[in-house]
Amino acid sequence: MGEKNVVVVGAGVAGLTTALLLSRKTGYKIVVAAKHMPGDYDIEYASPWAGANYMPVSIRGTAAAEWDKNTWGPLEDLAQNHPEAGVHFQDCEIHSRAKDVGSATANWFAELLSPSPWFKEVLPNFRAIPKESLRPGIDHATVFTSVCINTAIYLPWLVSQCLKNGVVFRRAVFKHISEASSPSIHPSNKVDLVINCTGLMACRLGGVEDQSVVPARGQIVIVRNDAGKMLDISGTDDGDDEACYIMTRAAGGGTILGGSYQKGNWESQVDPNLAIRIMKRAVELCPSLTGGKGIEHLDVIRHGVGLRPVREGGTRIEKEKIGGVWVVHNYGAGGAGYQSSYGCAQAAVALVEEAFEVRARL
User: Fold this and answer.
1) If pLDDT is split at 50, 70 and 90, which confidence band does 358 have?
2) Measured between alpha carbons, how far is 109 from 340 in angstroms, rounded to an integer?
3) Was 245 annotated as part of a binding site?
């Protein structure tokens, strides 16, 4: 079989990572076709808004934990050897309060909050923080070395690596997934396989219309103040769907203060009252942000809202025939888009190769 012509729909972290890993194999001619590209800021496009970091929430023994585990090595390599990718190492402290048990945030973070999570064998320097050094109200805490990703550098870096490998990028809006296999999309005038990395929009795309995909609205404040580490806590006193986390992006990307986890909420505009609560919680969790002073000493760059593409039942990595063409799905990672990106892309690429093997046998 000659050249294998593939169209990847979506240029978020899932689409770009999948295109990159596939472009490292021989014999593929790849087009990434997407409505939104790195550099765009749109509520339908979650990737630029992410923190982003490696803070696994996947449950031990699941496929999701395997994808997260397979992503750590590549991210560690980028932080160590490729400064131009905008990924750096950072200590990550996870604080836990007994009173948060059963809340939406604590349930979302269950594995992360465990004193003995699966990733303690994967991440460097995992240890418990002694009880006596914790603030009042914190029942236990762990710390480990992780990475934080400056999405404004990393997404264009992924594009540049794809371009180096001959991947073609083009703007396109599809109403139905079958439109991605139309010959006019690909320079070869022929499409053999489509990879669907449409994130949240998988719930509206014809031929897919996955109703189990819903937004989990995250609101953030980006500030110039440096936290020097990542911090996360099991919950807040401000409501079930609010969260508190802090991370400083690589290469001058500012510090992200979050957040919220508002399932089913499509609101793209910033809620100013939530922004105040986010800043107050951040300054309380990490007094060094403002030298112990109030939120008026935070130097705000901007406010943002992103919609995590959450899929009930987890990320969908499957292949199926739609309109006679193989479609490999890789969408619905929710808040784990970056920290599972390589593992999910590897699994998707394996399905692509499987589909072509089936074709070759026919």
Assistant:
1) confident
2) 15
3) yes
Residue type for position 322 = I
| DSSP symbols for 285-296 | H-GGGTTT--GG
- The pLDDT value recorded for residue 39 is 97
Alpha helices for 24-103 (secondary structure H):
63-81
Give tens-digit pLDDT for 174-231: 999 999 999 999 999 999 999 999 999 999 999 999 999 999 999 999 999 999 999 9
Contact status, residue 54 vs residue 31, Cβ threshold 8 Å? no
Give the domain ranges of the chain: 4-361
Residue tagged 């819903």 (tokens)? 214
Tell me the β-bridge partners of 300.
223
Residue-level pLDDT at 1? 61
Cβ atoms < 10 Å from Cβ of 88? 18
* Residue 308 annotated as part of some ligand binding site: yes
Which has the closest alpha carbon to 143: 133, 157, 153? 133
Tokens 């793209």 belong to residue: 268
Q: Global pTM? A: 0.97
Mean pLDDT (whole number) for 257-282: 97
CB 79 within 8 A of CB 96: no
Q: Is 198 annotated as a binding residue?
A: yes
Report yes or no: 232 and 112 within 8 Å, Cβ to Cβ: yes
For residue 211, give Cα distances in angstroms to 46, 327, 332: 18, 18, 11
DSSP E strands: which ranges in 213-333?
213-223, 230-233, 242-248, 255-260, 262-263, 300-311, 316-322, 325-331
pLDDT the model gives residue 219? 98
